[in-house]
Amino acid sequence: MPVKKKAAPAKPAKKPAVKAAPKAAAKKAAPAPARPAPRKSAAARAAGDMFRGFTPYPMKKGEPYMNDPQKAHFRDILRGWKRELMEEVDRTVHHMQDEAANFPDPNDRATQESEFSLELRTRDRERKLIKKIDESLANLDANEYGYCETCGVEIGIRRLEARPTATQCIDCKQLDEIREKQMG
Fold first, then answer.
1. Per-residue confidence at 25, pLDDT binned at 50, 70, 90?
2. What distance separates the 2 farthest-apart alpha carbons in the chain?
3. Domains along the chain with CATH numbers
4. Is the pTM here over 0.70, yes or no?
5. Fewer CB atoms inside 10 Å of the end CB: C or N, the chain?
6. What percent of the chain has pLDDT over 70?
């Protein structure tokens, strides 16, 4: 006759201690997305990716503001940014020509129209940005680039590197934003 073993008394289940993981660690542990991330628009890239490979201007003590090397630095930035935007325009034209189809399903047609509409709206914003870039290049050639159009003070190298089409110093821009907030 087999000997029965006595079952050990059941211990109450302990809840594992949950530690708040740092956000960075939580992001690393997250699985990769199932589908690829959507492509950034040129406007989205313009703010961040424009500066890929970008080297900040090495300012020297006592160096005059908007000297020839600084002008060349900003001319390169503005031309590179404009080139990227123009390439995006070309990609959009080819994409719309290649993807244009007459879907029999009304939902598919509506989806395609929405995508095209959003893309055209983005291109319109980029068209306005290209116009600002052209104005900045013209100001650069006229030795007016880098100075506030409102008060005439220097905008600053680092501010211009952050937003190459800036036309106002930080103080005047903040005043304009306060006025806009009060009006609207």
1. very low
2. 106
3. 63-183 (1.20.120.910)
4. no
5. N
6. 71
